[in-house]
């Protein structure tokens, strides 16, 4: 069932900054996450993704700016689990408690009916593990339990950090479909991940940060287009001759092990015309579509954190 979207489902960061000692991890960051779509939250290691999510969830206080959900700071929400479902660290569960007791304890703090525990365990595929202790769970099972906790209050907003970590291929496809389904219901879904291929298949919108600053806030396809090169794959028996002609016209040419040329700086029509004028046979002329990973690497190349001591924020 599709929900009516409402301002209470908006996640907003406004001029958000966070400093730890002399180190500024998040720098004047502003964005809005809207309902009805899966929004991917991306950035290189040390970009400030985890810190930003902690600020949104009230686990850290910002040095400057505001982090709100539905116009309120997380700490001011009357029933947080009913408004926001979050999973930042799947293993952050008392290892001696069973899955059922863990969820039931959370439910009681928010006035959530106990029957909801069985509903979410069934939803995430852990119904048979209700009475197993969390300490015996694999990483993939812990991820599913974390998702169950996030869904416990049937929230309008979901915030998940690396939700497919530890899942097998079947589990990854499953959670992809769950997230898309939740978004189609009109919920707000923010997902942080380092798996570019998975994000390309899951997220309709991207927020990308680097060194704590906003790099992009746009639809996924637009982001890929921004980072796309104008590379063209060219197959010809006259590779050397065509390559020399293209270089004279200002194009950049590299040669693959199989003899095909990768040309940038010249459009397919220009390459075809040049080959025709010089009697060169073309066997292949294929524009190279960039992947999300290609675009991500291109657009964040100046934001990669090289200092190992500062990585991991």
Question: Would you give an account of this structure?
Answer:
- It is a single chain.
- By secondary structure, the protein is α/β, with parallel strands linked by helices.
- 34% of the residues lie in helices and 24% in strands.
- The protein is built from eleven helices and 13 strands.
- It has a six-stranded mixed β-sheet with strand order 5-6-7-3-8-9, with helices on both faces. Strands 11-12-10-13 form a four-stranded antiparallel β-sheet, covered by helices on one side.
- The longest helix has 16 residues, at 169-184.
- It is elongated.
Order of helices and strands: EEEHEHEHHHEHEHEEHEHEEHEH
Distance, first to last CA: 37 Å
What is the alpha-carbon Rg in Å? Answer: 24 Å
Biggest sheet character = 6 strands, mixed
Hey, roughly how much beta strand do the residues contain?
Answer: 15-25%
Strand order of the largest sheet: 5-6-7-3-8-9
Report the helical percentage. 25-40%
**Structural class, from helix and strand content?**
alpha/beta
Q: Average pLDDT across residues? A: 90
- According to DSSP, the number of beta strands is 13
> Count of DSSP helices?
11
Q: Runs with pLDDT <50, length 5+? A: 306-313
Shape type: elongated
In short:
This protein has 313 residues and is α/β, with parallel strands linked by helices. The protein is 34% helix and 24% strand.
């Amino acid at each position: 069932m599709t929900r009516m979207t409402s301002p209470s489902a908006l996640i907003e960061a406004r001029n958000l900054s966070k400093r730890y000692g002399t180190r500024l991890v998040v720098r004047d960051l502003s964005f809005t996450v809207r309902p009805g779509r899966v929004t991917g939250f991306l950035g290189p290691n040390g970009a400030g993704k985890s810190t930003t999510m902690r600020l949104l969830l009230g686990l850290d206080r910002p040095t400057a700016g505001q982090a709100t959900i539905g116009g309120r700071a997380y700490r001011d929400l009357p029933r947080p689990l009913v408004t926001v479902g979050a999973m930042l660290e799947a293993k952050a569960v008392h290892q001696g408690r069973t899955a059922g007791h863990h969820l039931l304890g959370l439910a009681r703090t928010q006035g959530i009916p106990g029957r909801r525990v069985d509903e979410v365990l069934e939803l995430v595929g852990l119904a048979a593990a209700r009475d197993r202790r969390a300490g015996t769970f694999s990483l993939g099972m812990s991820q599913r339990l974390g998702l169950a906790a996030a869904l416990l209050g049937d929230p309008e907003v979901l915030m998940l950090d690396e939700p497919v970590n530890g899942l097998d291929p079947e589990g990854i496809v499953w959670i992809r479909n769950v997230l898309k389904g939740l978004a189609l219901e009109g919920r707000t879904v923010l997902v942080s991940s380092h798996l570019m291929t998975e994000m390309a298949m899951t997220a309709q919108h991207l927020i990308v940060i680097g060194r704590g600053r906003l790099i992009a806030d746009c639809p996924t396809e637009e982001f890929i287009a921004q980072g796309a090169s104008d590379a063209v794959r060219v197959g010809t028996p006259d590779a050397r001759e065509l390559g020399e002609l293209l270089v004279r016209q200002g194009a950049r040419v590299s040669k693959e092990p199989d003899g095909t040329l990768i040309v940038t700086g010249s459009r397919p029509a220009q390459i075809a015309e040049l080959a025709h004028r010089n009697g060169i046979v073309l066997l292949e002329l294929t524009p190279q579509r960039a992947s999300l990973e290609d675009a991500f690497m291109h657009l964040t190349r100046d934001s990669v954190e090289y200092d190992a001591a500062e990585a991991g924020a």
